[in-house]
Amino acid sequence: MIIKDNLSIRGFVASGFESVKEEFIRNFSKRGEVGAAFTVYINNEVVVDLWGGYRNRHTREEWKEDTLVQVFSATKGFAALALCLAHSRSYINYDEKVSTYWPEFAQNGKESITVRQLLAHQAGLSPLNNLGIDVLEDLDTSRLSVSLATSKPAWDVGKIHGYHAWTIGTLIGELIKRTDPKHRTLKDFFQEEIAEPLNAEFYIGLPASISKKRITTIEGINHPIQLLRGITKLPRKMLFGFLNPRSLVATSLVDPKKFVANENFNHRPILSIEFPSGNGLGQVRAMAKIYGAFASGEKILGLSKETLNELKKEAVPPKSGYYDHVNCINIAYSLGFWKHFSGMQFGRSESSFGHPGAGGSFCFADPDERLGYAYAMNKHGFGMANEPRELALREALYSCL
User: Fold this and answer.
1) Is 46 helix (H, G, I), strand (E, B) or coil?
2) Cβ atoms within 10 Å, residue 60
3) Which of 112, 159, 219, 389 maximizes the CB count within 10 A of its CB?
4) Distance of CA 128 to the CA centre of its chain
5) Confidence label for 223 from pLDDT (cuts 50, 70 and 90)
6) Nearest alpha carbon to residue 333 among 263, 390, 269, 385
């Protein structure tokens, strides 16, 4: 289907989901979409599978059925899914101390931090200023984990939580390497235990064999007016935090060397390392299939009932409540995922789990509907949660259910 300016929309929707396709088209015709894909699985069957627009706006190369897209922080969810599988295999216990599996972690007051606290962003390891990130390769799990092991928590563990934007993926990756009997890296564990069994193409660390012609070109917000509008939408406390280089906001999120700038994700160096906090990419269809498998307890993965029940549990906030001292809004975290809460309602109930990414991508599982959901795009919006294009699709989908 050609909608305007030679932009084409392809794919299909099952009967009853026609309004989802209408919103997907409206994203291009009314909301400025450049290239995107959206897929939904229910009971491990695809009911929505749409893609369209340009993979690269400047060269006019179309987004194809097998196009790969960068999903930034949505990568954290896939890293957390890998740890869920390690839990199902009894490699790891969420209520055990991290130092039981990673002895070097027991330094500078971190001896009693549990895996569950770590995954709930309560461990105080979000600041970057003392981690020695001098070259891009220092973001790789193999290097960053060494610095994190010696770090001192920035707050009393369990008292508050704050988004570990750059570090949570590394912490998960090191736990997998330490507990897996084969001592595989996270990227290898994910490929061999999740991606390959499900025949789902998603990478945390891009293989050299993948052609650049399959990967989207990311566009950030460059127009001054759009940038100003976006900034004004940020929480006031976050804005003030960015102005103070010593604040928890600035030390946790600001990248002085701009390693995680959007433009860098259009090139191989940052995509090739193991950076599970933000460099995952794959087919959107694969992302939905993977979350759908966890939502339905797909037998091929060997998921235990105990793990599935853990995933469905409501988030338990730290002592001070749900306020995130890095993102400066209320967020519910559990086991490395965002959970359904007042400011980010997804799925039927608190049993849903997933993770958004910078610019607006979002992947999640809804166990109540046995549903896997994934949306990703190459034109980034401002912020992470409830990007208008994604939200329109989510609302249309659930109106169909």
Assistant:
1) strand
2) 11
3) 389
4) 19
5) low
6) 385
The DSSP bridge partners found for residue 337 are 334
Strand segments (E) across 43-160: 45-56, 61-62, 69-70
- The residue whose two tokens read 């990007």 is 387
Structural domains of the chain ordered from first start: 2-71+214-243+279-400 (3.40.710.10)
Contacts of 226-235 with C-beta under 8 Å, sequence gap 24+, read 226/382, 227/382, 229/382, 230/381, 230/382, 230/383, 231/382, 233/382, 233/383, 234/328, 234/383, 235/327, 235/328, 235/329
Strand-pair partners of 2: 8
Q: Which DSSP string corresponds to 184-235?
A: --HHHHHIIIIIHHHT--EESS--TTS-GGGBPPPB---SHHHHHHHHHTS-
Residue with tokens 């309560």: 122
Q: Are 36 and 52 in contact (CB under 8 A)?
A: yes
With 70 as the cut, is the pLDDT of residue 228 above it?
Answer: no
Distances in Å between the Cα of 377 and the Cα atoms of 187, 249, 347 are 23, 26, 21
Which tokens belong to 75?
């990568």
Q: What pTM did the predictor assign?
A: 0.96
Give the separation between CA 74 and CA 210, rounded to whole angstroms. Answer: 21
The DSSP letter of residue 393 is H
Nearest Cα neighbor of 324 from 155, 175, 174 is 155
Cα 4 from chain centroid (whole Å):
31
Question: What gap in Å lies between CA 195 and CA 217, rounded to an integer?
Answer: 23
pLDDT at 78 over 90: yes
Q: How many residues does the chain have?
A: 401
Span 144-182, pLDDT tens digits: 999 999 999 999 999 999 999 999 999 999 999 999 999
Q: Mean pLDDT throughout 308-334?
A: 96
Give me the phi and psi of 123, to 5 degrees please: -85, -5
Give me the helix-helix angle, 284-296 and 75-88, nearest 10°.
Answer: 30
